[in-house]
Amino acid sequence: MRIGITCYPHHGGSGVVATELGKHLAGHGHDVAFISYSTPLRLTELAPRVSFHEVEIVSYPLLKQFPYTLALASKMAEVARMKQLQVLHVHYAIPFAAAALLAKQIVPELNLKVVTTLHGTDITLVGRNPSFRSITAMTIENSDAVTAVSKFLKEETYREFSVKKEIDLIYNFIDPDRHAPVCTNCVSPLNCPDQFTLMHISNFRPVKRVTDVIRIFARFTEKKNARLVMMGDGPDASTACRLAEDLGVRDQVEFVGVVNNVIPFLEETNLLLLPSETESFGLVALEAMASGVPVVASDVGGLSEVVEHGMTGFLAPVGDVAAMTEYALEILDDCSSCRKFARAARKRAVELFDYHDIVPQYEAVYERVLG
Ligand code: GMT
Question: Which residue would you say has higher pLDDT here, 16 or 192?
Answer without folding.
Answer: 16
